[in-house]
Predict the structure.
Amino acid sequence: MIFTRFDRYVDRHARAFTERLQEICRMPSVAARGTGMRAMAEAIEKLMQRAGAGTRSFKIGSGYPILFGECGAGTKSFVVYGHYDVAPVGQLTDWTSGPFAPAIIDGKLYARGAANSKGDLVARLAAVEAYQKSFGKLPVCLRFIVEGEAGIGSPSLYRFAEINRELIAAEGCIWEEGHKDTQERFVISLGFKGITFLELRAHGARTDLHSKWAAIVQNPAWRLVQALSTVTSPKGVITIDGFSSHIAPVAAEDAEALKEIQLDEAGLKREFRIGGWLRGMRGSSLVKELIFGPTCTICGIQTGHTEAGPKTVLPSYAMARLDFRLVPDLTPQLVVELLRKHLDARGFKDVEIIELGSAPVTKSSRESSVARAAIESAPEIYGAPPVVFPLDPASGPVGTICGATDPPMAVVSFGMSYAGSNPHGPNENIRIEDFLQSIKYFGRVIHHLGEEVRQSKSGSHRISQALVLSES
Amino acid sequence: MIFTRFDRYVDRHARAFTERLQEICRMPSVAARGTGMRAMAEAIEKLMQRAGAGTRSFKIGSGYPILFGECGAGTKSFVVYGHYDVAPVGQLTDWTSGPFAPAIIDGKLYARGAANSKGDLVARLAAVEAYQKSFGKLPVCLRFIVEGEAGIGSPSLYRFAEINRELIAAEGCIWEEGHKDTQERFVISLGFKGITFLELRAHGARTDLHSKWAAIVQNPAWRLVQALSTVTSPKGVITIDGFSSHIAPVAAEDAEALKEIQLDEAGLKREFRIGGWLRGMRGSSLVKELIFGPTCTICGIQTGHTEAGPKTVLPSYAMARLDFRLVPDLTPQLVVELLRKHLDARGFKDVEIIELGSAPVTKSSRESSVARAAIESAPEIYGAPPVVFPLDPASGPVGTICGATDPPMAVVSFGMSYAGSNPHGPNENIRIEDFLQSIKYFGRVIHHLGEEVRQSKSGSHRISQALVLSES
C-alpha cells in the first residue's frame, strides 16, 4: 500500500495535531488529586469522535469515566488501550516550565503526560483520522479503551472488564506507550512484568514526641527500617523467604530474543548520571536482569520531620511504599503472602501490609497478529527492524484487558517516548518529530492489522463483507 | 520572707501577664523558616526592658539576634537562659487551633512555643517585675540570655559565648524549661544529656526514575535502609561498633537519685497511647534507661513519592535525620567518628554523614547554689519536695553557657509544662494555672539565690554593697 496520501495528510496537519496535543496536555488530570478529571474525560471523548469513533462513557461507582470508542469495520477487532490520567507532578521547583503549561522548546514538548501517555493517544487518534481521510474506512475495527485511573491502580477498569467482556474480547491488544532506546532504535514489547504495590506501616505513640522519649518508647521508624532491611540484601537482591524459588527460568526462545537487545549502557548512565549498575552488572547479564529480573523498589518512605530545619522528634508513624515488578511465575497474591510470612517469622507482626494495587505478568507470542503488524510496520518508518523485548520491564493493568479472552489475547506495546522523556519525573517531554513519526507508524500498523486479518483463513471472508457494509 | 505582697501583685496582674504571653505566642518565630524573627526579637527585648532590665542585642553574622538583659544588683550573677524561637509547626491539620493564634480553652493556652519555652520566659520576666514592684531591687543579678536559634542548633550562641565570656561567666545557670510529671509532681533537672544531630544521605540517579529501572539501577532508599539497619538492633539497642564501651557506669550518688524518680508508667502510656515500653522495660530499669540511656532516634526519613496516590518511582535520593542523646562519657565528636567507621566497615562509604548540630553532656551538683535555690523554693509553691533528675533526658546548648567558667558553672532547669503539653508536637499547650504558679515560684527562686549568696562567705559583703549602689 502506498502511504503518500496518508503521509501528506499528516504533514499538512502536523501543526494542528501538535496543537491538539498541547490542548490535551494543558488539562491537569492527576488521578490521585482528582482535579480536572471530568473535563479531561470529555475532551478525550470529543477527540475520539473527531476521529470518527462512536463513543460511550462508562462510569463505575465513583470512579473516573472509562471511555470506549469504536471505529473502523470488520468482525475482527483490536483493542487500543490508553489512559487520560497522568502521574503526579512531584516538586514543582524541579520543572523548568509548568507541568500543565505545555511548552515547545527546541522541538520538544514539555508537559506532564506528554510521554505517558497523552502523546500516544492523540497520535493514534490522529492516525485513525488520517487513515480514514486518505483511504476511507479502517480495514479492522479498533476499540479504544481509555481510562482515567492508570496512576491509581485502575480500579474502575477491573470492574469494567468484568461487566463488559464482549466489548474487550478481541484479536489482540495494542498497549499505550513505548520508546526509542538511547541509540534511537524503536522498541516493541510483547508483554509486561506484573506489579504489586504495597504500603508498609508501623505505628508508635499517638503523636510525634520529643525525641528524649526514644530511650523508652519504641520508634516506628526503626521498626520499619529493621523490617525493610530483611526484604533485600545490601547488594539489592530480594531475600524474602521462598521468593526466588518462584522465579521461572528464562525460556530458550526468550534467551534468543534477549541477544537482540543491547542496552546503551554508556548513554543510559549519562542520562541517569550514575557511575555504574546495580551489583556491577553489565552486558548480557544486565539486559537479562532488566527484562527478567523481579524487583522490590522502595518508592517512598515518610516518617517524622523532614522539612527544612532540624526538629528532633520521635515519630508516631512510619510508612514505606514498595512496588514489586513480577516476572513469571510470581503473582501479586503470592508475593504478599510470602512477604507477610517472612515478616511474621522475624517478629515484625506489628508492621502492617496494605495492598494498593496489582497486575499479573502478561506475555505474548511473536507470531500473534498484533506482534507481526507492529514489527513489520517498523522498518519503513524507523529505518530498521525494531528491538523486540519479550517482556517490558514496566507494568500495567494489561491482564485485565488481555484476560477477556481465553487464551488471553496477545498484547504489544510501542510509542513515541525517547530516552530523555522522563515520563514519571520532572520535565517530562516528547520530541515533536517523534510524535509525527508515530502517527505515520500507527497508520502502517492499522494497515498491517488488516493484512493479518485478510491472510488468516477464518477472517478473510467476513472481513470483506464488513468492508462492503461499512463503505455503504 | 513573706511573699504576700508579691503574690498579690501576681494575682492582680494575672490577666495582664497571660495576655502578654498570648501576644508573644501570636508572633511566629520558627527559626528554620525565618519568618517574623526580627519582630519577635524586638518584642522580647521590650519585654525585658519592661521588667527593668538593661538590654543589649547581639547579632552574630547573619544569625538571629541574641538578647542580653541584666537586672538586679550584686557582683554575684546568675544566667537565665531562654529562646524566642519555636519548633516547626508540622502538619497544620493536626492542630485544633492555629499554632500562632493562641487560644485559651478550658484554662489551657494552645500555641506553638507556649510550653517550649515562651511561657517560661514571659513568666520569669513577670516574676522579676513583680519582685521589684513588691520588694525593690533583686538580691542578685540575673542575666537573661535569650537566643533565636535553639531549634536550629544555636550557631550564634556558640560564637557569642566565645566572644562574650565575661557576660556569661556567673555563679550558675537557670535553664529554659521543665515540667510537672503525670502525677503533677514538680521536676527539677540538674543537667542535660548531650546531643548530636545528623543527616545521613544516599544518592542514586540524577532524578527520580520509573521504577522499572530498579532491576539495574541502585536505589538510594535501599542503601539508606540497609545502612541504618546496622546502627540499631531490632530491639532498639545501639549497635555501632565500640559505642557501648564509652558509656560510663551510673555513679552511686546518681543511682540513689534515680530511686526518688518514679515514672507514672500507666499515665504516660495513656498519654502516649502505647501498650508498653521499649524492650518490655518497666520500674527502675525504665527510669534508669530514660535518664542514663543513650539514644539514637530516626527523627525523619524522606525519599521518593510519599504524597497521596500511588506513584511507582525509583527515588534519586534518600535522607534520614538522626539524633543521638548522649550520656557520660559519649561526646558528639566520638559518636560521629564511631558511626563513620562503623558504616565504612560495612561497605556504606557512599552514605554521607552531615553534622547538623551538637551539644555535650552537662551535669551539676545538688549542692550548687542554683540547685539548692530551686529545690528549696519548690515545696511552698508545689506542696511537696520536687522530683530531682540527675540528668534531663533532653538536651540543649547548655555546655556553651556553662562552659564559660572553669569548672563549668552549675545548671538547673525547671518550668511550667505538664504531661500533656506536647512541646514539639501539634496542639502544644500550657495550663494558665501553671503559668501563674511558675511566676510565683520564680519569685521564690530569686529570693533563695539571694540567700545562697548571703550565706556564702565570699559573696556576702560585696552583695550588700551592690545592693546599696543599685538602690541609690
Remarks:
- The domain at 194-247+293-359 of chain B is CATH 3.30.70.360 (Alpha-Beta Plaits).
- Chain B has two domains: 4-193+361-471, 194-247+293-359.
- Chain B is about 40% helix and 20% strand.
